[in-house]
Amino acid sequence: MLRSINTKYIIFGTFFYAFIAALFPVEQKALYVLNYLTVLIFVLFMDYLERKPENYFTQKKMTFFIFYYSVFFVLCYNLISYYYTDNFYIFSEADALLYHNESEVMSNLPFVKSIEYYLSRHELEDMGIVLVLSTLYKIAISKLLLSITYVFVAVITATGMFNISKHFMPYKYACLCAITYCMSSYVLWFHSSGLKESLLIMLIVLFYSSYYNLILGKKAVSIWGVILMPLLLLLFRPVLSMFCLLSVALGVVLNRKLSVPKIIFLFIVLFAGMYFLEPILGSTDKFLLGGTESMLEIKEMEGMVKGSVAFTYLVNTLSSMFGPFPSLLSTKVHLTFYAPGLIFKIFISVIFWFSIIYIIKNRLNKTYPMIVFIILEMVSLTYILEALELRKSIPHFPLMFIIAFIFIYKFDSHQLINIKNHLLYKKSFNILSFALCALIIYWNFR
Question: Which terminal residue of the chain has fewer beta carbons within 10 Å of its beta carbon, N or C?
C-alpha cells in the first residue's frame, strides 16, 4: 500500500506541476522548482526506505534523517524567502511579525513583567510562542534562531510519533510514519515561518505519547506528561487542551461495549459539553463567534461563504475529511509551499478512513482516544467553516498519519481478513485517489 501511495504521488504530483508549467507563467521559478523537488526527493527517499528490511530501522537513525532533512529544507525556504522578499518570514508576515515584535520587547523585561506586559495587550492563547521566542531573544534577536529551535522540535515530534506508533506496528512502519509526516512540505514551512504551530503540534504528540506510555508501557512517570501537556496547550490554543482530555475520557468509555444509541448520545453530550465548557477556558466568543447565526454573518462578511451556506459546508466537510486541498497556483505565495505535502496527505486521508473501518471491525480500542481527537477537530472546524485553513487543521495531522499507518502496515503484511477485502480496499483506494485528484484540478482551476 505504501508503494502504491508513493507511485500515485509521483504520477499526480508530476502531472500537476507539468500542467502548470505548460499552461501558466511561473513568476517565482526557484520556488516552483523547489516545490516540485520536494515531491521528487520525498518519493525517492521513501522508496529507498520502504525497501529496507525491518532491522535497518532504529529510532536513532530516524531522528538522524529528520534532523538533516529539516535543516536542509528550512535553510532553503529561508533563503528563497529572503531572495524574493528581503525577510525570513517565508512570504507570510501575519502573526509571525507580531510575535517577533512583542518578543523583542519582552526579552528586555524581567520574566514576570514580560508576562504582565503581554497579557495587558493580547489574549492568553498566543503567550506560549512569545515566551519561547523572548527567551531565545535573550541569546540573540534573530528569527532564524527560532527556525533552528524548530528543527529540534521536529525531532522531538518525530520521536513522540514513533513512541505512539510502536505500540501498534513494527519499528519499520513506526519510523516511516514519523518520517512521512515530518518530511511534509507544510510541516517544513511551519518550522521556517516563525509561527506557533510546530510547538503546538509537539505538545499534542507528547500528550498522546505520555498517555500510551502510561497505559501500555506502564511507565508511571508519564502521568506528568498527561498533566503538563494540556496545561501548556492553554498557552497556545486552549480548545485543543480540552479536546485532548475529552478524547481520553471518551476513548475510555468507548473501550467498553456500547450500543449505537448510547454512542450517539455520548457524542451529543460531548458537543453540548464543548459549548458549556468553552467559557471556562475563556474563548467561547472567538471559537463560536456568538452562535451559529452570528458566525455565518461574520463568515459572509469575510468572504468565506462561497455560493450558498449548504455548499460552503459541503466544501468544508470534504476538506475536513480529505484536505485541505492544495493550492498549486495562488496569489498567496506561502500556500504554494503547502501544496506538495498536501497532495500526499490526500492519499493518507483516504487510508485513514479505511483504517477507521478496520479498527472498528477489529476493535482496536486503544486507538480510540486519537480517533476521537481527530473527529472533534474535524467537526468543530467544519462547524465554524475553518476546515480549509491549514493552521487550524494541522494539529490533528500527526495522529491521522499514525491511524493511517496502522492500516498500511496491516495491508502490506497481508493481515486483512481475506483476499477479497484486500482487493476491495485496493480498488476503492484507486477510485477515491483519482476522484480526489480530479477535485484538486477543479479546486485550482475553478
Answer: C
Q: How many CA atoms lie within 13 A of 6 on its CB side?
A: 19
Helix 368-383 / helix 238-254 crossing angle, nearest 10 deg = 130
Q: Give 212-231 pLDDT, tens digit per residue.
A: 998 887 787 888 888 899 88
Question: In this structure, what DSSP letter does residue 222 have?
Answer: G
Greatest CA separation for the chain: 66
Task: For the beta carbon of residue 79, count every other beta carbon within 10 angstroms.
Answer: 13
Measured distance CA(320)–CA(338) in Å, rounded:
16
d(CA 327, CA 322): 14
378-422, pLDDT tens digit by residue? 988 888 778 888 888 999 999 999 999 999 999 888 877 666 676
Measured in whole angstroms, how far is the alpha carbon of residue 275 from the centre of its chain? 24
Q: What crossing angle do the helices spanning 127-137 and 197-215 adopt, rounded to 10°?
A: 110
Q: How far apart are CA 429 and CA 6, in angstroms?
A: 13
Answer whether 185's CB lies under 8 Å from 341's CB: yes
| Per-residue b or e along 30-63, where b marks 16 or more CB atoms closer than 10 Å to that residue's CB | ebbebbbebbebbbebbeebeeeeeeebebeebb
d(CA 13, CA 93) in angstroms, rounded, equals: 28
